Recover the amino acids of this structure.
């Protein structure tokens, strides 16, 4: 009514034609006013903005909210207060997984919604198959502005509108970032630099459009250089050790004992732990260098000593990432964007924080298979929800598309988790996830693939024709394969059927299983590209 009356006042209308139009407007006005007063349906609301904060190698064990191995410690020490707050105000997924636990492959799956064998990125340094759809293309078509800052770690050029990224690993200090206009070294600590660039973009963006902003941190990837402000934080604290820090790899297939990712024999004193070498005289690491010279730990004492240094540096890097989450959350609130912006925190895969005596990732085993997934979506995700549904990185692209009011192409492997977020999980939601690791390079983790259900993990290693079965209820640390246990015969049959079903569904024919009654062919071990060791 007000709109119509206002029109009458400013446009008095001197002839019959105008008068008739104004009368018609007056008649329609009550209906329009009534419609405006109705609660808008979700698909008629302003499209939400999405901020996707994606770190590198951040294990769920090192997040307070998760109730995982170091969660209590993280809460006590305030390692992840901002990520925990997001989980409190929104929710988090305890069964969120990758499909190939390595940096570039996970990123390619996030972008394409496809598993590695279908998007071309089975290893590092492989491009996404040219011409494949990615979600930034889809979001642009839906009218979104898209931007990515930080670690990209793919050889393909981004499909984002704005980008400033490192195509490789990048560095912890003074990172050199590339944009459409060239490369530039930016002074500062990488996590802070990436956050500053993201917030700067947020301030300067076109406010007439919804946005998707990806903040992609390098941290806490190896070699775990903390920011100066946290250089001595946690120095006098003892980090709890995992019960299997001195795992002997008995009762499992041969690969578990043949890897090269043990804190004991494979973690470098100089480059990883900053003791000796180029860090010998670095004032930030003076105490550890002096301690080592004084204590000269040996044997298990040395492993324990290395574990403490490793974990402290790792958590210091995590703490800086958490600061970034806090800054971004506050900036969104200050800009009045808190209510209509979805914030997601995730990392490209999990990591071993000493479990099995390891660092690094790659395996189908729990610590590297899990990805954190924390989401705050005001009005849609019930605060404090602990989701148990199984989700995977192939779900991100279709999820972003549905959040933006669109749909991913039918060819993607993943499925939108939006109904799950709205507590409307479809009855046919997945009950298992498929995993395939493709490279023997770096850390000597052989090709393997398998299936993980809510209760079991079944893995196959084609090079040695070995299987492993873990009962996660009985053996959550995965210390004893039950594959040879006759009590599990029926379970194994069911899981093999499920594994074959998943391989067929996704069209993965790589590293085929031997036909019944036949011996496995020696798997064609794929040569690890340069740099795969990271
Ligand atoms: Ca990674």
């Amino acid at each position: 009514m007000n709109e119509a009356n206002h029109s009458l006042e400013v446009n008095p209308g001197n002839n019959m034609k105008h008068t008739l139009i104004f009368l018609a407007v007056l008649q329609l006005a009550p209906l329009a006013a009534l419609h405006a007063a109705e609660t808008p349906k979700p698909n008629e609301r302003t499209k939400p903005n999405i901020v996707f904060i994606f770190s590198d190698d951040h294990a769920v064990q090192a997040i307070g909210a998760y109730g995982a191995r170091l969660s209590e410690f993280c809460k006590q020490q305030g390692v992840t207060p901002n990520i925990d707050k997001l989980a409190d105000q929104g929710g988090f997924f305890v069964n969120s997984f990758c499909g190939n636990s390595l940096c570039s492959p996970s990123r390619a799956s996030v972008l394409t919604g496809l598993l590695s064998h279908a998007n071309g990125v089975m290893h590092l340094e492989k491009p996404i198959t040219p011409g494949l759809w990615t979600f930034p293309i889809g979001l642009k078509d839906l009218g979104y502005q898209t931007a990515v800052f930080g670690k990209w770690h793919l050889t393909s050029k981004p499909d984002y509108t704005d980008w400033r990224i490192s195509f490789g690993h990048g560095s912890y200090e003074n990172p050199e970032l590339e944009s459409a206009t060239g490369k530039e070294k930016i002074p500062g600590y990488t996590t802070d630099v990436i956050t500053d660039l993201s917030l700067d973009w947020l301030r300067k963006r076109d406010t007439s459009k919804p946005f998707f902003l990806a903040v992609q941190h390098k941290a806490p990837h190896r070699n775990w250089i903390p920011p100066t402000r946290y250089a001595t934080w946690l120095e006098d604290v003892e980090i709890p050790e995992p019960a299997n820090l001195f795992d002997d790899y008995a009762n499992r297939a041969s690969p578990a004992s043949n890897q090269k990712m043990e804190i004991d024999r494979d973690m470098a004193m100089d480059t990883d732990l900053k003791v000796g070498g180029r860090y010998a005289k670095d004032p930030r690491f003076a105490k550890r260098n002096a301690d080592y010279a004084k204590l000269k730990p040996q044997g298990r004492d040395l492993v324990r000593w290395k574990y403490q240094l490793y974990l402290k540096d790792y958590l210091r890097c995590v703490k800086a990432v958490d600061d970034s989450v806090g800054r971004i959350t506050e900036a969104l609130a200050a800009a009045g964007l808190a209510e209509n912006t979805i914030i997601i925190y995730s990392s490209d895969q999990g990591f071993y924080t000493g479990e099995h005596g390891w660092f690094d990732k790659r395996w189908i085993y729990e610590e590297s298979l899990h990805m954190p997934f924390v989401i705050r979506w005001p009005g849609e995700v019930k605060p404090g929800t602990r989701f148990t549904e199984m989700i995977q990185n192939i779900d991100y692209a279709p999820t972003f598309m549905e959040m933006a009011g669109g749909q991913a192409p039918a060819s993607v492997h993943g499925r939108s988790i939006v109904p799950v977020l709205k507590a409307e999980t479809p009855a046919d939601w997945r009950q298992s996830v498929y995993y395939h690791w493709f490279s023997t390079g770096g850390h000597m983790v052989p090709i393997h693939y398998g299936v993980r259900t809510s209760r079991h993990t079944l893995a196959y290693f084609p090079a040695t024709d070995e299987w492993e079965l873990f009962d996660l209820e009985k053996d959550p640390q995965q210390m004893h394969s039950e594959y040879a246990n006759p009590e599990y015969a029926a379970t194994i049959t069911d899981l093999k059927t499920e594994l074959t079903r998943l391989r067929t569904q996704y069209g993965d024919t790589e590293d085929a299983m031997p036909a019944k009654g036949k011996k496995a062919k020696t798997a064609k071990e794929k040569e690890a590209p340069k740099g795969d060791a990271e």
In short: Confidence is low (pLDDT under 50) at residues 1-44, 527-532.
